[in-house]
Specification:
alpha+beta; Uridine Diphospho-n-acetylenolpyruvylglucosamine Reductase, domain 3; about 30% helix; Enolase-like, domain 1; globular; Uridine Diphospho-n-acetylenolpyruvylglucosamine Reductase, domain 2; 3 domains; 14 strands
Length: about 290
């Protein structure tokens, strides 16, 4: 590992001031579970790291809004989300997803802000948060802005964040009347990198789907929604033919990529089959 300077600012303003918008060798570090692996392998050689661990309560809270939405500080660790009663009440799919996200040692260190900023398409949370309609609050020298999680990722390990911007919070809107599920398809153990990560949210009333949100990861270069497949479902009467149609539409729409987890053709089959299964589980009330 190459030598580097480590800064430990005590405030968000100080942290932002230490970041250089024009120097990619200066990087913020939260939990560091992904960044340290990149550094040890020589893939990334920073000159300076800006640690966020001393920023304190401002970035570590979990706050439930009166309408049932929840705001999560960017430095909240994944293990805290997994165990949080507030998260299990407001968005239980997040806690369920984290049970097989990597391993407990990683979850005890990794943060939700770092997880999203890293922009690895194999991560489990991005498609889940996209399906839930979550947003991130981003702070920089010019102030704050809000970015939908579905608009955050621009490419493999790339986001819309400038080098001197930080994610400070994640907001999940109220999920009243909605149910969501995450399906993870792996070739080996349940906590391995997936060949497909599939998150689905539905709002059904009177035998019709009023709303459907579908997001995938791992099989594509970035986590993303599948709006054409969603349109197939919206406002339609629920039956097996509709679910098959949605599965075929999702498999055709997704810009899948081949890798050592499987060919593009194999991943399209995974999407088609597992979307139908996920929809059936949701509509049978298996989870919310």
């Amino acid at each position: 590992m190459s030598p580097f300077a480590l800064e430990e600012p005590a405030s968000l303003a100080e942290a932002l001031a230490l970041l250089d918008p024009d120097d990619p060798s200066v990087r913020a570090i939260a939990g560091g579970t992904a960044l340290m692996l990149m550094m040890k392998s020589g893939l990334y050689r920073p000159q300076r790291l800006v640690s966020l661990r001393r920023l304190g309560p401002a970035l570590t809270g979990i706050h439930v809004a009166p309408d049932g939405g929840v705001e999560i500080g960017a430095m909240v660790r994944l293990a805290e989300l997994e165990r949080s009663p507030a998260i299990r009440e407001a968005a239980p799919v997040i806690a369920e997803t984290l049970l097989t996200h990597s391993n407990v040692r990683v979850r005890n260190v990794a943060t939700i802000g770092g997880n999203l900023a890293h922009a690895d398409p194999h991560m489990d949370l991005p498609p889940v948060l996209i399906a839930l309609g979550a947003t991130v609050r981003v702070s920089g020298p010019s102030g704050e802005r809000v970015v939908a999680v579905e608009d955050l990722f621009t490419g493999y390990l790339e986001t819309v964040l400038a080098n001197n911007e930080l994610i400070t919070a994640v907001a999940v809107p109220s999920q009243a009347g909605r149910r969501a599920i995450y399906v993870k398809c792996t070739a080996r153990t349940a906590d391995d990198w997936p060949a497909l990560g599939l998150a689905v949210l539905v709002h059904a009333e009177d035998g019709q789907l009023r709303e459907a949100r579908i997001a995938i990861g791992a099989a594509t270069e970035t986590a993303r929604r599948l709006p054409q497949a969603e349109a197939v479902l919206a406002g339609r009467a629920i039956d097996d033919a509709l679910l098959r149609e949605a599965g075929r539409a999702a498999a055709a729409e997704a810009p899948v990529i081949a890798d050592h987890h499987g060919s593009a053709a194999y991943k399209r089959v995974l999407i088609e089959v597992h979307l139908q299964r996920a929809l059936r589980r949701l509509l049978d009330g298996a989870m919310r």
